[in-house]
Amino acid sequence: MTENQFLQELETALKRLPKEEQNDILQDIREYFANGQADGKTDSEIAAELGSPQEIADELIESFDFNQGDISAAANELTEDKFDQVDIQIDNGMLTIAPSEDGKMHADITDKSYRQQLNVDILNRTLVITLKEEPRKWGIFSFTGSMKSPKLDVRLPKKLYDKIQIDSDHGTITGERLDSRQLSIETDNGRIELAQMTADQATVKSDNGDIELAQIRAKKLKVGTDNGQLQLRNIQTDELQASTDNGAIDLRDIEGNVRAKTDNGRIRLSTVDLDRTISLETDNGAISVETQAQPKNATIRANVDWGTVSVFGVKNRHSVFGSGENAVDLQSDNGSIKVELV
């Protein structure tokens, strides 16, 4: 059987599926034929590996959820009294999460391939939403990944949740205007953008990607990325920990104690005052601190191995203001340190 014959038979057998699903499947088969041909295989050998086009179609049609468009309709029954926690797990996709306008939960997805399955359920008063890749195997051939990155839009009833947890293997996470006692948002690979969120304890982490936070209120806020920049604006917290292995840290309008560290990148802090515990450390990069008033009760220690120091225009590595009770520690192995009024 030639490639064209195989594709024609498969396309005919897939007629029950939506056209977009058919196109995704046929494209996967074309890629498999192309890879096999590059390895020196004949079309007949490749077709034998795949198996019968009819059997492939039967398996796909049997597993296809023809009611997947009804997820949002069923979700309309999920009001705020049905769940207190939220758990979202994504293999690959872009997530947007925000409050709903009608007090009900909605989960809408676009650009999904036939190998990506969206499930919504309630388990022990926890709303569980999963978007998973399901590998397909025909003969000795497996489809294990998807080139598509679906867009998942989740809308939650407006309330104070006990916990909101989001875990993503790959994809951007965007959230706004949510309140939770515990907030945990992590992605292995992707950017995270959050705004107007409140929590008692919040953890935001990306293994590879920038993190941008604005208008966040939390008693404890921990933000980190292995590779990417951190940009935090208008943060009200008792304790902020911000870290990146490789990337700049930009902190503006920050209230509360601050601890920020990067192995490679500059650190900038813009704030109203310095009368609190502050620790800024970089192995390679400059440190810039802008404040609206000189401290009244703080000790500023500025240590550099290679670079200049300027504390309010004075080349002083140890400056005491008032009783000096609040420690402001600034350290750069390779880079200048500057503290100035703005």
From TrEMBL:
Residues 86-339 form the DUF4097 domain. Pfam families: DUF4097, HAAS. InterPro entries: Toastrack_DUF4097 (IPR025164). PANTHER family: PROTEIN FAM185A, PTHR34094. This is DUF4097 domain-containing protein. It comes from Planococcus plakortidis.
